[in-house]
Amino acid sequence: MTISPQFVTEPGDDRMASTAERHLWMHFTRHSTYETGQGHVPIIVKGDGPYIWDDQGRRYIDGLSGLFTVQVGHGRKDLAAAAARQAEELAFFPVWSYAHPRAVELAERLAHEAPGDLNRVFFTSGGGEAVESAWKLAKQFFKLTGKPTKHKVISRSLAYHGTPHGALSITGLPGAKEFFEPLVPTGVKVPNTNFYRAPEEYRYDEKAFGLYAAERIREAIEFEGANTVAAVFLEPVQNSGGCFTPPPGYLDRVREICDEYDVLLVADETITAFGRIGEMFAVNRYGVQPDIITCAKGMTSGYAPAGAMIVSDRLFEPFRHGTTSFQHGYTWGGHPVSSAVALENLAIFDREDILAHVRGNEGAFRRTLERLLELPLVGDVRGAGYFCAIELVRDKATRETFDEAESERLLRGYLSKALFDNGLYCRADDRGDPVIQLAPPLICDQSHFDEMEQIVREVLIGAETLL
Length: 467
Ligand SMILES: Cc1ncc(COP(=O)(O)O)c(C=O)c1O
Fold this sequence. Notes:
Blueprint: H1 15-23, H2 32-35, E1 44-48, E2 51-54, E3 59-62, H3 65-68, H4 77-89, H5 101-113, E4 118-124, H6 127-144, E5 152-156, H7 165-170, H8 174-177, E6 187-190, H9 206-224, E7 229-234, H10 250-260, E8 264-268, H11 282-286, E9 292-295, E10 307-312, H12 313-316, H13 336-352, H14 354-370, E11 378-384, E12 387-392, H15 404-421, E13 424-425, E14 427-429, E15 435-438, H16 446-464
Parallel strand pairs: 3-13, 5-6, 5-7, 7-8, 8-9
Antiparallel strand pairs: 1-2, 2-3, 4-10, 9-10, 11-12, 12-15, 14-15
């Protein structure tokens, strides 16, 4: 074992990166990049507002809010102070048959923000655990209410819902699942709402496309047998594949279908909650009432880990009686420090009117990115709020995408690194068709949008020569 050298901010000093390459197992990371000396692991040492710095002193604009988390920006002393205060007062106590004030206050605040009768909050440490909890709750709820065979879940192609076996089973990315099969064997997939890739007959009618996509859910319920289906899981705006917004009427129709077959509707708002698209919860924007919301990430702006599932009174009802309990929990669920940070984060939302800022600026963000449509590689710009994707195509006229070798050369070989080297941290993703995703901190304004657009533009112009 080697001991980490003291960190030194000296350009050219790559000891920290070398130690990372020797000992740190990075998530979802192709380590061969570093084994074969094709560059060093970027070491991020500092953040301030929408900017981050690496250990070589270089500054980047954070176009992904860390990982869709840092809503109110980096380097906030108010959030750090809230964490320190709570750690001094009560650093840890579980919410297993006991409570502490911050978990109680946060549960009340989340219930207040969630629509309708979503009044019961079950805390987790992150989004995947919230999804896992929601599936287990759905199964137990139906067992307690006389429909014990309802257990399957319907979710959408390409959607990412987390890494625990259940959440991974709900995930619609075969590449993320193949090494862990067999997974929980009752996850059923339906089409997502990528309008840019809609079947030809719906390509010019978004509403008709939405109804088509919703009907695929009905079809899946009927194929599986409604008496076996417990829940539909979907993100109001789907991240993976590149920010697929719900077509008009889609979510209403899904809600109707769920009601008709007594299937629970779970809105996985791990990314979309807490201002990402200008509301505390995206379902508020689209006017749909889910039975469960799962959320995480932006709840604390990333200053401490936290997640939650927020559940309707109807679902909690059978747990109020007799010897029944939900046999499920996490040590870190409702952690006092995370809860205190979340409360302060939401207080910042109030003080600085973060939601209004996003609503007031999302149009400008979108229009700025739409300037990129003049480039030959840019096929589509889409999204909502501060959550946008730029889909890259080989041929704009036909919407033809890249083959495997081109994707490898363009996305994995060039784009991510070139964007970063040019001062923009964001995501170049090809789990569906290739997209660049931008989801900056919610405090960003036009100057930041311009900065991101300029970097993406230069890098995409450079990419044209690679094809
Ligand atoms: C929609 C969605 N669900 C679940 C998860 C998993 O969250 P976590 O990584 O906190 O477990 C993610 C993570 O990005 C997500 O985007």
